[in-house]
Amino acid sequence: MQTDDTIAAIATGAGKAGIGIVRVSGPAADQIASALVDRLPPPREARLRWLRDAYGDRLDRALIVRFPGPDSFTGEDVVEFQGHGGPLILEAILAAAVAAGARRAKPGEFTERAFFNDKIDLAQAEAIADLINSQTHAAARAAVRSMSGDFSAAVMALVEQVTRLRMYVEAAIDFPEEEIDSLDDVGLAREIDAVITAFEQLQRKVQAGRVLADGLNVVLLGAPNVGKSSLMNTLTGAATAIVTDIPGTTRDLIREAIDMQGVPLLLTDTAGLREASDVIEQEGIRRSRAALGEADHALVMIAANDPAAVEHANTLLGGLPESVSRTVVINKIDLVTPSDVSRLSSAIAPSSAVIAISATTESGIDALRDQLLRIAGVDHAQQTGSFSARRRHVELLADARAHVDTGIDQLRTQRAGELLAEELRLAQNLLGEITGQFSSDDLLGKIFGEFCIGK
Ligand code: GDP
Fold it and tell me: How far apart (Å, rounded) are the C-alpha atoms in residues 356 and 430?
């Protein structure tokens, strides 16, 4: 990581606005600022100044604020020019900073410097991006909590639990005369229980946080005319539609993002998984399968008045990958009797949850929404204390947990304390990757590369 150079970028969004900010960070920040203004203001005090280019021509009249390191966002000397928010003006200010010795910043480079200067850890850096990208108020609140370090603190607490267990086990290895007597050792059993409980609690919260940040990805499957688009309309009509047209989706894959009591619900209506002969439909099916690969849950929809409803449901359920959890939605119950509905429900594979609705009369829609919130693992109570998280965190936690489970198993079956100690060490390393204590350059490049320039 090279920090002896000074970077600059437009920190505000593209387009016209009341003001726009050019941010400069690095050892030469003050020197570069001096090239643009005649007098530097005192630290952390805003002053109005004329900004001039290398020829002395006036560029803009702007506020200038200095944040000398280490008390700045990046930990380095930072100067902000708050000028008028026109793209050409801001570009001219940036060009003047570059002419004075700054280099144009890469995406996320300010945040990356904050990370390398220990102003924030990796989970906090990711939370900044999640906050900027958040789609619901609940998601934004969760991201703020992660950004302020709540998530990192929870990970650290877990690392501490794992460390305690490891110390306990290692002490026993070092003094073989006090050999750990596997499960008969009350203290050890208690430490193990504490670690497992701590993992379970954090895994639940992180899963919920991941759903808040990314949205619950639900795929809607069903034969033509069962009422898939009607359900999407009902769900979006009753809630706030965040976007109706997500780029990259096509006619045969309709995707909507809905604010479902704070949980972003990404609902994808697929072309179905029928076998198709013609090329266009095959492409639709390929996309449907791809959508299923990313799905958290599948809603399999049938129409109550369809004589072949059970058969349709079973075909669709049979075609789903094992890993995708599912709910069967019986639609159009307004067209049949209640006893028809219960007959139909009981004829469907008992392993699936069944919810009966009418997209037209909206009966059963609340139950369906509750079911989706349950699957998201984010109820209202959890939202208040939740933090945002990412798939990466969910996976690292699961991998760390797997090492702990393996180690405990080895202790139980082979009385192998040294194997448990080693598995605990591996688990600690994985947990350290969440906060960036251990992290590869590839990972850092990927995380900071997702930021916009100027962040
Ligand atoms: P899709 O092809 O699965 O997207 O189905 P649509 O949403 O286009 O619905 C097909 C037809 O069924 C339309 O005429 C809808 O008005 C009708 N429909 C959808 N849901 C219901 C329902 O719950 N009750 C009744 N009576 N009709 C419905």
Answer: 43
